[in-house]
């Protein structure tokens, strides 16, 4: 990969956990790892090799030994990354290592002990402290999501019924890159809220698993934080920058036993390892730099981390190690993996004004609510002014920009409501006491006042609801420069700044030392001048020895890598054999037990979905071809409900014959004998029946369709009942009224 100006490499740090009790009881000689903290080097001793064999040395951006504190790792290696995220970059931190080496401890740690809080809680503190200390013209929106990848399926950990819901899909858009569709995202206003989100997710993770340790060692957990920041730019418009932070606790990197298992178990084992081996392949392809194709699409994890590996992001990898001799092989694999990752180049850039910024939508909604509220308050104030007899009036409520004026309007609006209530109460009292009014009139007036009061209350309630909605919305946006406690705590702030400076310095120092070491080796020969031959021989012998040792080291390394390659190849071959066997078995069943036409039907329905990267069945009858399959109505039947014979047409034209009635229901001559209304001889009814107007009949309002005989003119319809109205159509029979 070519280096350009804005590219930077993935930062790789290594952390070794202390020996645990069980390992300690095995004796003090158990430690196989040594570290040079100043140079950032790790030395690994092979416990089974003779003591003369040289140790393996690896150099990283930083190393943390068993005594290292969570805070040190955070300040030195993570803080700069979070600062970048707050400035609008994408950032990723992932913990890689064997199960039990401290990935979860590093990422989460013990929440209750401030000394042992891991990267994630420290990042929460960092983000929210930064927001509270920033200038007041900045607005922030922070949201969080939590997901896990288990057996190549993505599960939303913030969705209440996470276990039962179906796995989520990955989607890709040109603007945001790869994202998870329908993933829950919680807006967080404080550290407490975001911690709550984390806890909910952790609990969901534990509930879904029968054996937590087993589950967490086989699944990847991704905590995603998006920080959107809006700030007025030099052009006077508000610009939004979006920083996305991925905090990833990977599955245990140890080899899952694949040999000797078959069927479902085999597929499961293959799937569990798939994401991690795909990650390894991606890292290798990127580190190699020569291969054009990077297999991001091989797994869900690599697709999600696509930007973090060789793309638009700043990335820190924390490789965790265990010091016990029995895990020598795994430790070595982890170190090699981490060493390769150092070579990956990323091209981070600030995400400025992306189209999908939620902050902008929030700002628009808040503005809309505020305008609505202002409008209401202005209306009330104007009413009050009218009551007060003031002629001063304004057309546009938006003109109230000044705080004082705003307050005045608010006060006036409140006062108006109070005064109005009092006035109505007084009027009610006056009505009650008025002896000249009739009881009925009194009741009516009181009712009216009551209704007015109800309206007033409703109006007020609506305003209150609107205010609550507005406040809730507004509180989600965090504004800088509001933390008063922080201002009083200057000393602590200074202390923090000093600590960051020290971390920065030690980082620089290490970088310089590493550079010096590399240069030293190159220029050793050039600088040396010898006074005597003897001295020259000595110096050169020393150098020869050194180089020879290095050569041996590299030879051993090559041997190791070859061996590792052979084993993994064997394993892959074995998996391939087993999968081929299974495939042959399936083919055998298909060829011998499934009829060829059935097979063809299934084959024809298969289509490849490039979006989801898998084969899918098409629906049985494709929706778009449905209309083509339906027969068109023959043109001979224009104007009729269905094809109709010539004879039928003639018959209809001649006379309504019962056989052809069904051709058109509208032309039906309904057999409507009038109801026997003789017993219902009421004067009012008779009166109504004589009404000649059809329009005033209630049946019209009721939407009753009037049926008419196709060969007779309509008559006026008496409308005492809908039943009768229908009967009226029957021209042959006179209606009851007639
Ligand atoms: P993983 O997530 O890699 O499987 P864990 O984070 O669960 O491993 O760590 C295993 C155990 O080791 C835990 O009990 C944890 O407290 C302990 N541990 C890991 N790293 C450290 C460390 N740096 N200091 C102290 N204890 C640690
Ligand atoms: Mg873990």
UniProtKB/TrEMBL annotation:
One of its GO terms (molecular function) is ATP binding. Keywords: ATP-binding, Coiled coil, Cytoplasm, Cytoskeleton, Microtubule, Motor protein, Nucleotide-binding. Residues 398-408 have a biased composition (Acidic residues). Signal peptide: none annotated. It comes from the Eukaryota. It is found in: Cytoplasm, Cytoskeleton. Residues 716-738 have a biased composition (Low complexity). This is Kinesin-like protein. The lineage of its organism: Eukaryota, Metazoa, Chordata, Craniata, Vertebrata.
């Amino acid at each position: 990969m070519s280096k350009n100006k804005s590219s930077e490499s993935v930062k790789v740090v290594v952390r070794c956990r202390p020996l645990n009790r069980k390992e300690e009881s095995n004796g003090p000689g158990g430690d196989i790892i040594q570290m040079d903290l100043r140079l950032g080097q790790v030395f690994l001793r092979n416990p089974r090799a003779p003591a003369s064999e040289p140790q393996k040395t690896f150099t990283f951006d930083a190393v943390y030994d068993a005594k290292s504190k969570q805070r040190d790792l955070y300040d030195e290696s993570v803080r700069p990354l979070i600062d970048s995220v707050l400035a609008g970059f994408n950032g990723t931190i992932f913990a890689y290592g064997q199960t039990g080496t401290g990935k979860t401890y590093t990422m989460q740690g013990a929440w209750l002990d401030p000394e042992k809080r891991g990267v994630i809680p420290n990042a929460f503190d960092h983000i929210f402290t930064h927001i509270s200390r920033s200038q007041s013209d900045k607005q922030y929106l922070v949201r969080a999501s939590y997901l896990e990848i288990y057996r190549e399926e993505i599960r939303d950990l913030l969705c209440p019924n996470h276990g039962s819901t179906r796995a989520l899909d990955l989607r890709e858009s040109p603007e945001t890159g790869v994202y998870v569709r329908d993933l829950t995202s919680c807006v967080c206003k404080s550290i407490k809220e975001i911690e709550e989100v984390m806890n909910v997710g952790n609990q969901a993770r534990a509930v879904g698993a029968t054996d937590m340790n087993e589950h967490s060692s086989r699944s990847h957990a991704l905590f995603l934080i998006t920080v959107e920041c809006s700030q007025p730019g030099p052009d006077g418009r508000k610009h939004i920058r979006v920083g996305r932070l991925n905090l990833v606790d990977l599955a245990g990197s140890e080899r899952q036993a694949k040999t000797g298992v078959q069927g479902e178990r085999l597929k499961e084992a293959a799937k569990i390892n798939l994401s991690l081996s795909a990650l390894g392949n991606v890292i290798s392809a990127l580190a190699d730099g020569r291969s054009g194709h990077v297999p991001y699409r091989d797994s869900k994890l690599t697709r999600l981390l696509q930007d973090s590996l060789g793309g638009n992001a700043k990335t820190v990898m924390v490789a965790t190690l265990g010091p016990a001799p029995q895990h020598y092989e795994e430790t070595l694999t982890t170190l090699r993996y981490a060493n390769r990752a150092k070579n990956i180049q990323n091209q981070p850039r600030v995400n400025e004004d992306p189209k999908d910024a939620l902050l902008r939508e929030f700002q628009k909604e808040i503005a809309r609510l505020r305008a609505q509220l202002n409008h209401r308050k202005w209306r009330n104030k104007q009413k009050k002014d009218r009551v007060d007899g003031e002629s001063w009036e304004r057309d546009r409520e938006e003109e109230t920009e000044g705080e004082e004026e705003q307050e005045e309007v608010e006060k006036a609006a409140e006062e108006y409501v109070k005064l109005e209530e009092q006035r109505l109460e007084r009027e009610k009292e006056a009505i009650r006491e008025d002896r000249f009014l009739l009881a009925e009139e009194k009741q009516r007036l009181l009712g009216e006042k009551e209704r007015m009061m109800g309206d007033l209350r409703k109006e007020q309630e609506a305003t209150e609801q609107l205010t609550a909605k507005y406040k809730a919305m507004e509180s989600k946006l965090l504004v800088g420069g509001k933390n008063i406690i922080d201002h009083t705590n200057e000393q602590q702030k200074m202390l923090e700044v000093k600590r960051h400076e020290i971390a920065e310095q030690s980082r620089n120092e290490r970088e310089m030392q590493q550079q010096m070491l590399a240069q030293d080796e190159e220029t050793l020969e050039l600088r040396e001048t010898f006074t005597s031959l003897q001295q020259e021989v000595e110096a050169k012998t020393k150098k020869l020895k050194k180089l020879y040792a290095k050569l041996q080291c590299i030879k051993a390394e090559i041997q190791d890598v070859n061996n590792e390659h052979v084993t993994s190849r064997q394993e892959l071959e074995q998996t391939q054999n087993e999968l081929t066997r299974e495939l042959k078995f399936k083919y055998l069943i298909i060829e011998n037990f499934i009829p060829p036409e059935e097979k063809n039907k299934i084959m024809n329905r298969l289509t490849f979905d490039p979006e989801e990267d898998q084969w899918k069945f098409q629906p049985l009858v494709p929706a778009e071809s449905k209309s083509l399959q339906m027969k068109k109505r023959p043109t001979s039947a224009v104007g009729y409900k269905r094809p109709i014979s010539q004879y039928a047409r003639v018959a209809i034209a001649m006379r309504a014959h019962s056989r052809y009635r069904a051709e058109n229901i509208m032309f039906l001559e309904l057999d409507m004998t009038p109801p026997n209304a003789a017993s219902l001889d009421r004067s009012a009814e008779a009166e109504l029946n004589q009404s000649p107007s059809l329009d005033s009949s209630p049946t019209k309002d009721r939407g009753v369709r009037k049926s008419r005989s196709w060969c007779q003119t309509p008559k006026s319809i008496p409308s005492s009942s809908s039943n009768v109205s229908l009967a009226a159509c029957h021209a042959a029979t006179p209606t009851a009224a007639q």
